[in-house]
Structure formats: structure tokens, C-alpha cells
Structure to design on (237 residues):
């Protein structure tokens, strides 16, 4: 069974830094693409960024709202995903979810995800003075 | 633009069929994934891929795509289907993921 457990959330002042971790089990982490998704209090889901597997060069991509302030990395030897955040703003306050990810395939008409994804329970980051 | 829009709220009578839509240029050419989120819980996939359901998701959930619209259909809505629903697609120009704003479903 897939398990994703986020940690590292907490209260941080504006301009501060924080590193979130996500411990993964129940699947071959090294082969998996992973992503972070966040949800501000009472708001919808927002994609934060993605990291591909080492086979796919470990390529990363980030949402415009966080690009330049966050970095996603992975330690396949520890089955752990990270989200390093710098220059935090009050609008970064959210529950941060670690999830598995997958490539988009093309069926001749549409692109589609060929695998379901799994989510952790999330960790709350509060940016406030 | 990568904006994907959903109706903020939809209601359905118990046992009836409800359709939740997701619209935008980022939906064109993509089969959106759909997520269900209940209060205090993490989102759960209800539809992905070519109208596939993960294990444990009832077959009353289905999805379709046409043009710039993706539609999640719940045939015979149950009380336990009351939740927020989000679509997920990809911006075809930036190739970055996008979520719709979410639809709160109320089962009457």
C-alpha cells in the first residue's frame, strides 16, 4: 500500500525559509515522478511543482507563483521527497501535499494520465509575523 | 491563459444525476483527472486517464471531454458524494499542471 507522509510544516516569519519532507513507501520511489500541491485555507488546490525520476534526468518544473523561491529535490536512497522554500510570503500559507505523479500519454485525440496518483495527508505551513 | 474554471457550487437531489464541468483552453486536448475532497481530508482521485476509476471508486463516477470542456458525471448521487470536486489538466503552451477552482457538490 502506498504511503506518503509529509513533515516539516510550521510557523515561519515572512521572508523566512522552510524545508518540507515527504517519506514514501509501498512503491518503487526511485522510478516515480512526484509533485507538491498546496491548498490555502478555505481555497482550492494549487500545483506547486514536479520532479521526474532520475531516469528522466530528475527534471523539475515549478508554478509561476513560486518559481525562484522553491526547489524540489529527492533522495532515492531514503525514499524521500523535499520542498525547500525561501523568501516565504503570507500567501504561501497553505497545507502542502506530497503526491505521486505520472506522465501524460496521447491516445491520438487526447493527452491523458495513464496512472492514478496518491496523496499524503499534508503538512500545514503558516507564514505570519 | 492557463485558467480552468468550474462552477463554484452545484446541488443534486439524492439518487439523481449531476454533471460537474471544467472549462478552459488548458482542457482542450486533455482528458482531465478529477479529484474529490471531503472536509479535513486530502483529495482523492475519482477519475483519471481514459475515464478510469481507481480501485474502490464506485462506477457511478464517469467523465467525458469535448472541446474546452471536461465533464464529471455522477449517476445516482449518494449522500457520501457530497464534497468538493476539482479537475486537473495541463496548460498546452507551458506544459505546467493546472487545477480548476473547485465545485462544491451538495446532495439534497
Amino acid at each position: 500500500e502506498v504511503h506518503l507522509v509529509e513533515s516539516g510544516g510550521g510557523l515561519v516569519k515572512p521572508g523566512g525559509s522552510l524545508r518540507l519532507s515527504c517519506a514514501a513507501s509501498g512503491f518503487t520511489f526511485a522510478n516515480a515522478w512526484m509533485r507538491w500541491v498546496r491548498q490555502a485555507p478555505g481555497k482550492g488546490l494549487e500545483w506547486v511543482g514536479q520532479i521526474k525520476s532520475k531516469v528522466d534526468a530528475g527534471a523539475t518544473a515549478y508554478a509561476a507563483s513560486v518559481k525562484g523561491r522553491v526547489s524540489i529535490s529527492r533522495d532515492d536512497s531514503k525514499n524521500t521527497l523535499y520542498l525547500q522554500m525561501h523568501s516565504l510570503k503570507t500567501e504561501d500559507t497553505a497545507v502542502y501535499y506530497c503526491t505521486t505523479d505520472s506522465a501524460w500519454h496521447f491516445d491520438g485525440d487526447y493527452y491523458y494520465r495513464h496512472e492514478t496518483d496518491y496523496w499524503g495527508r499534508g503538512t500545514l505551513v503558516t507564514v505570519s509575523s | 491563459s492557463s485558467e480552468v474554471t468550474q462552477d463554484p457550487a452545484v446541488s443534486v437531489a439524492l439518487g439523481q444525476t449531476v454533471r460537474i464541468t471544467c472549462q478552459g483552453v488548458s482542457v482542450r486536448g486533455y482528458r482531465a483527472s478529477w479529484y474529490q475532497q471531503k472536509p479535513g481530508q486530502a483529495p482523492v482521485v475519482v477519475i483519471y486517464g481514459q475515464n478510469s476509476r481507481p480501485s474502490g471508486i464506485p462506477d457511478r463516477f464517469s467523465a467525458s471531454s469535448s472541446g474546452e470542456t471536461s465533464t464529471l458525471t455522477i449517476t445516482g448521487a449518494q449522500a457520501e458524494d457530497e464534497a468538493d470536486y476539482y479537475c486537473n489538466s495541463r496548460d498546452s503552451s507551458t506544459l505546467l499542471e493546472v487545477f480548476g477552482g473547485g465545485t462544491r457538490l451538495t446532495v439534497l
